Amino acid sequence: MEKGNGMGRFLTLMMLVLVSPIMAQPVLAEQQPALHWVGCGISKKAYLVNLAKAYEKKTGIVIDVQGGGATRGIRDVASMSADLGGSCRRRIRGVAEESGIVQVPVAWDALVAIVHKDSPVNNISLEDLRKVYLGQITNWKQLGGEDMPINLLVRKGKISGVGSTTRKLLFDNYDQEFVASELFDSSGPLEKKVESEPGTFAISGISSARKRNVKILDLNGKSPTYENVSTGAYLLYRPLYLVYNKDSEHANMAREFIRFAGSKEGRNVIRANNTVPYLEGLNLLRVKLNESKMAREGGGLH
């Protein structure tokens, strides 16, 4: 009887040893502190994924990274359904869904004109870019390409990160109408369409566009290189923001992550992704004043 009891205790102990690692794993995962990030897909690709990994390695704090667009990045944080957001546009003042948040600029992104990889066009002027969006240039022959219609792809609505910034940088008018051939809910499908279909034309953020099999056009003879963006030689650029809500229960944790993004270590991660850290492009704020003037003067093309 004692032998039987001894064998039973032995089997029970072995079962505990074998099962306990499997059972312990989800418990440890639940105990690990985490922040929930949503927002701009361009910010996500530009720096956020690798920055989150570096922060987890340094602190043990996991950043759960989701997409959803700039508007979601702002509004989910405002409603406190997310701890952190990413946005490539400023919040809209006077809109309740976007109130109560703090936006901190952490990087710079270039907006680029993208075309099919086989297009013979390599450069576009700022004036011609405006004319394409106003429907005044409708054929590739007018840009030095083949005799075929331009299929202009545009983000749906006017408040997306790319949509609002394009209107601001090209026309200094957030309500500017575009003469579009097709509308898209997000940048991913839009970029894929340019990859697959000759004759297409679109604007997207360089951080995601450079990872696609598309041709990125020079603008006024300048390519959107790291140096040209950081100095303002390339004309279309915008800040990328991290967003938090000071009333959130995780506000302090969110602020610590944002501090990390602006630290020397965080800037190194951003730079390694070929994205310009915000502090390394402060001169762009001065250049931007001149660009707004150019947009106002050039936005009235008829």
Automatic annotation (TrEMBL):
UniProt-listed InterPro entries: PBP_domain, Phosphate_ABC_transporter
Keyword Cell cycle: no
Positions of the PBP domain: 47-264
Entry keyword set: Signal
The keyword Signal is annotated on this UniProt entry: yes
Family annotation (Gene3D superfamilies): Periplasmic binding protein-like II
Name under which the protein is recorded: Phosphate ABC transporter, periplasmic phosphate-binding protein PstS (TC 3.A.1.7.1)
Organism: hydrothermal vent metagenome
